[in-house]
Every structure is written in C-alpha cells, then in structure tokens.
Amino acid sequence: MKLDSSPIAAIATAPGRGGIGVVRASGRDLGALIAALFGEIVLQPRHARYLPFTAADGAVIDQGIALHFKGPHSYTGEDVLELQGHGGPVVLQMLLARVLEAGAALGLRLAEPGEFTRRAYLNDKLDLAQAEAVADLIDAATEAAAKSASQSLSGAFSKTIDALVEQVTGLRMLVEATLDFPEEEIDFLEKSNARGQLAGIVEALNKVFQQAAQGALLREGLNVVLVGQPNVGKSSLLNALAGSDVAIVTPIAGTTRDKVSETIQIEGIPLNIIDTAGIRSFDDALDAVERIGIERTWGEVGKADVILHLLDADHGPARADEAIMAAFPAGVPVLRVWNKIDLSGHKPGVDAMPDATHVYLSAHEHTGIDLLRAQLLRIAGWRQTGESLYLARERHLIALKSAGAHLGRAAEHAAQSDESLDLFAEELRLAQAQLSSITGAFSSDDLLGVIFGRFCIGK
C-alpha cells in the first residue's frame, strides 16, 4: 500500500467538552509548520513547552502545551506535533483551523479515519494485528476486553503468530530443499521427522485458535434476544440479569411495545440483552403500536446470536408458544426459560432435552438466574482458562481456520510418503500466507482500507 506523504492533522480527542483536548499533526518534516505556528520559539523534541496558541493575527486562541516528536521516534514514524489545550469543541475547532492554515503551504490536510495508525503500520511502527488492537482497546466494553486488547497491542499475539510462521517456514524449507535434489534417494519424511514437526505445528495452531476464539468473544460479545408471549416475565428477567430496573414491569400484558436493550457482562463477556414486545397472533385485537412492536421483535430475532424463549411455568405451554417456536430461524441456539417457578412450585434447574435446553427460574425471586448465566456462557463457548487471551477479530479466526485446513491437507499428502512432496510444500506455503496475513505481511489495499476506515478520526 502506497503511503501518502502529505502531512495530516486532526483533533485526536473525543468530541465533547473535557479538561484537555489534543490537536495532532504528522508529516515527514514539520519544521515549517512549527515555525509558522510559533515563530522563533524552538520546540525541543520530546520536551513539553507551555505557550500560547495564537491565530494568524496574533490573537490568543488558547494556552497549552506543545510537544514535538521527531521521526522516526513517534507514534506514526514521522514528525508528530501535538497541541494540548482545553477540551472545548469550539476552541479545538479554532485550533485545528489554525494548524491547517499554517500548514497550507506544506499541503497539510485533514486526516482520514485511522490515518495516523495506518501510517504507524506502513512505517513499521506496528504490525496489522497491533494496529487493530489500538481500535479494540478504545472500543473495549469490559475490563477483560481492555486487558486482552492491551495484550495484543503489546505484540503478544503477533509474536505467537510469527512463531507459527517460523515453524511452518522451517518445515517448508526442508521440503523444498528435498524437491531441489531429487537424485538424493532418502526417505525425507522419515529422516527429517516432517510428520512429527507438522503435528507439533498443528497442535500449536489449535491452541492459538482456542485463545483467539475466546478473545473474539470478549470483543464481539453476544446478542441475546428475549422472546415470548405478553406477561411471561421478559422485562423482569432483563432487570434480573442487568441488576437494575431498566425495563418497566407491570401486571398489564403488553407493557413493552418496543425493544429495550441493556449490555451486561458475564465473566467479562459483553452480552447485549434485548427485551422485545410480547408476541401475540395478529388475529387478536391489536392496536397499531403493538403490531409494529411485534414486527420489530421478529426483526431482532433474525439478528440474534442466542434466543431466550420465555414461558410461564405456572400455566405451562400454550398453542401460541408452539407457533413462536416454529418461527425461530434455523441454526440459532435457543434456551427455553421457564419463568415464575415461585408460583408453579418447580425447583431451579436445567434440563437438556432433545428440542432445547430448558432452564427453570424465577426472575421475580432472582432464583435460578446463575443457572441461566452459566448456560449463556456454555452457548458462547466460553472456558475459564486462566491464560492471557488475545482480542482477536473475525478475520483472524478465518485466517487461523484456513491455515489449519491447509495444514490438514499437508498431513494427508505427508501420509503418501515422498510421492506428494510438491503438494505438501504447496499446502505449507498457503498456510504460511494465511498466518502472515494476520500481522499484515500479506494484506491487500482493500483490506487495509476497511480496517483503518473504521477507526476514529485523529487515531
């Protein structure tokens, strides 16, 4: 990917009012920009200087700190100038406008989303997995997610991937060296223990995938949708899971007309719990608002990672419940949650039945809620490993799966002894390419555009 060498600038702090706001600029040589902004004042690299930020006519915009980081010893690998002033949106816009004005002769322009981090990647300050971890750390919704993102940003994930690449490359070199000397009549696979080396690589890859999959859960979380007839206790269950009264609860059926969402965390995994309007047949006498609410309920069901189908344990299943079950999308995990056991006399518990897993609880009494939380963790595939996790993304998991598939085919060729060494070598090459794409050794410009385009401006 070609690096645009024109200098860039942007507000680097979040929109809104705050004690401090930062305007950041980056370019190959910002000496002229510094001179245009501060005249004869010299900014010593990596030393803070308190001074006035002035407009072109000398009027003071703000008072603050200027920091100059001389490339390549900076975040982007270029010269970086940071102006740290007060965090009011108007004053920051005025300061940014002044910086763009002062740098106009240099071609200074407003930065695109993620362009500072993209330059850090292209200037070898970060690899691609570390660059993604920057955004993940900013967006982390839980403490566990933030810790895992920090782990990836430090390079731990990249080092693990690089170690896998090195092992695959070493084995590939052995195979290709044998192909270059076919006259040597040796049993290569036996002499070099190629099958044993490959088995070790596969085992290491599987371990990395498990850690990455756990980390992906911390990043993505799950969309959990509460579905059921009116007045079965969906809003009460949402409140019980959230630990606060986020939804209105009354004995009147149909209280919830639109979705109510609340993000909670279980073992550090973010769960977006969505309470929906109770489902009744459109044949019943419904007002226009309730009809719209039910339509939106089914819209949320279509986007669910997990469906909690609430039923009334005191009255048992009704024909309407069967119709609801039949309409659930295929392939989405469903938990049958029997609420109101405080009225029915059931004990809190979990039954694994052929149709689904059934959980018995009382949202009103808060009994059996921990059983439901445990089932949500089970469906998510969460395992408490005690090991540090990497906050992986979906593309990382896809690349790891693909690399595993290529290594599997390599093992099949290895089973045919030396007759398929060329195919063995090719599968190793493809596995190596997939692994290298995680850290950015093999990445298309389109992929980079998508990744950095999702960053905030100023980062």
Brief rundown of the structure:
By secondary structure, the chain is α/β, with parallel strands linked by helices.
Q: Reading side by side through the largest sheet, how are the strands ordered?
A: 8-9-7-10-11-13-12
Average of per-residue pLDDT values: 82
Q: Give the biggest beta sheet.
A: 7 strands, mixed
Helix content: 40-55%
C-alpha geometry: flat
* % residues in beta strands: 15-25%
List the secondary-structure elements in sequence, H or E: EEHEEEHEHHHHHHEHEEHEHEHEEHHHH
Low-confidence stretches: 247-257
Keywords:
single chain; 459 residues; alpha/beta; seven-stranded mixed β-sheet; six-stranded mixed β-sheet; 16 helices; 13 strands
